[in-house]
Amino acid sequence: MNWAFLQALISGVNKYSTAFGRVWLSIVFLFRIMVFVVAAEKVWGDEQKDFKCNTAQPGCHNVCYDHFFPVSHVRLWALQLIFVTCPSLLVVMHVAYREDRERKHRLKFGENCSRLYQNTGKKRGGLWWTYVLTLLFKIGVDATFIYLLYHIYEGYDFPSLIKCKEVPCPNMVDCFIARPTEKKIFTIFMVVTSFVCIILSIFEIVYLIGKRCHECFSSNHHSRSISTNKMSSGSTLMAANSVKLSGKGTPETPAPSYSVAVS
User: Residue range 86-115: average pLDDT?
Assistant: First the structure.
């Protein structure tokens, strides 16, 4: 797999992400993909070759290895990274769909027509839901793979000595894992980074929901204040008009007459 191509492709969502999303992308590429490519594959590269058992019974070595390592850590983490990063492409595809609609709308009605979207990359409407659903999917993927890793290997520990009594082993045999401490450290590191990504995604969902609720509350408050001002101004105009009308209908009081005596 070309991880450089995947990194360049997924990084396109960086400009449509929040601050939490940018930190999430940095952790995924620096502390998960880079560690996986540079170190993890080399650490687990000789796991089957250096898995030793104190018996020469044909087939016992393979059966014991398959019993304790049914799925390779490297392949499991590769699937996890693919599933957790690909949903980010939905955001880029949704923005591209908006831009294409905007372009066709301008070609049909002219450049001076009203826009369908004020900002095609702004998380409003369907794009907001797409972004939130991708975050929920990422949380589900990371949590599922953490559970699978714990369930398949019965924890995150690598004991130095393993007891095996699988058929066709003649009896209880002792098997040994190559570099168990090093593999344990890398396993814990990958699990911790997965937990950190889950926490960041949760914070991002809370931030988006809180921001959306704040905007809705502010817009409702603003519309109510505008309607209140309109009603008050309307009542003032009505009162002024009524005063004018009452002034026109009242007859003028004649001036008092005075008698002038001429002597």
Answer: 79
Residue pair 207/20 in contact by the 8 Å Cβ criterion: yes
Chain centre to alpha carbon of residue 168 = 49
The residues spanned by each domain of the chain are: 3-7+18-216
pTM: 0.74
Please name the helix (run of DSSP H) or strand (run of DSSP E) that holds residue 53, with its range, or none. strand 52-53
Look at residue 8 in the predicted model and tell me its pLDDT: 57
Residue 120: HSE in the Cβ half-sphere, 13 Å Cα cutoff? 15
189 vs 197: CA distance, rounded Å: 12
Angle of the 88-109 helix axis to the 3-10 helix axis, nearest 10: 50
Instruction: Tell me which CATH code domain 3-7+18-216 carries.
Output: 1.20.1440.80
Q: What percent of the chain has pLDDT over 90?
A: 14
Query: What does the angle CA 119 – CA 122 – CA 126 come to, to the nearest 5 degrees?
Result: 110
